[in-house]
Fold DUF1501 domain-containing protein.
Amino acid sequence: MKAVTRRRFLGFSGVAAGALALGATALPWSDLLAAAARDPRPDGQGVLVVVTLYGGNDGLNTVVPVADPAYVRARPDLAYDPHEVLPLAAGLGLNPGMRGLEAVWRQGRMAVVQGVGYPRPDHSHFRSMAIWQTASPVTPSGAGWLGRWLDATGDDPLRALSLDPVLPPLLVGERSAAATLPLGGLPMPQGRLGEALAALGLPDATDDAFRARVAQSVEHLGSIGSSLAPALAGRTPIDSTELAEQLSLAADLITARVPTRVYSASLGGFDTHADARGTQERLLGVLDDAVAPFLARMAGTPAGRDVVVIVYSEFGRRVQANLSDGTDHGTAGPVFLLGDRVQGGLHGTMPSLTDLDAGDMRPTVDFRDVYATVLDGVLEADADAVLREPRGRLGGLVKPPV
């Protein structure tokens, strides 16, 4: 068996990600993250929080077309009655599990982009999620759309942070990757093992470009984890769901003015082929219980005024219910944008429930146009360069900083 040398270890490793955690509300300023003290995020600089709903959320039972007879005909046992939903606009209601977000809607801080999808849709979870995360429906790309933004904006590992257990592809670029933080923090090894790990991150003139990048990421992992250990020790986790804890941690970092520009969180379980109504309503309640308090906290601090949350899923569901009181993989669905920088209301056009494409709704908004809008309006990026093609914009969706 060959010895595991530093060079061999780095060769077998992927690009490592750093880690970051900070409990701003529980700590004095003297204990805040060194990066925030050195380079705090200024007012007016946008922050994007991406929430991924894995499994294919049923858009028709999220933003419900209760006044459309075709909706009731297609889903006799799954359809909501008008009195059961939370009113949004004429003929549309919000799922009853989303009472907190209905209040955000009434405040004018929630935008619903209707009918979002992409051309020639794919019903595979893996392929469709890859398309959404790379923004490449036609030409396969190994780089995430925000990973390409990372590639274009420097080498600081604090610019983007995943709060998911695994770094999602959307935050992995061709040359850069976001940091990642398990909810329990990042316990760094001590003693001889810790010394050996630190040695892997030391620069070596014989490294090729790939190994140099991995070594640099290992160094980031150690330095960031060590600097944040006191903050992690002082932070009290909330007693709630994983998504709520992810967003609570993001709120701590944002209020501390950590210079991170992008956060990623997620919630799974939306593949509702059977007993869909109760399952989805429960999951949307979990989403609501996490996002609504996060937005309330952001509204109460100057640091949160530039935060925009985007909530999406890899596809919607088919219009017609199946024989198991569920729905099968479909195409278009709503995307939510939330925050003070969002122009609340309905955007885009609700797809027809009768003019279908082999049983599927026809998308009316390309998801890449939504991405281009937030890249321009929130991250002040060259969206066409990041997305590698000229894209449209949804005018008026994102407001300029105050």
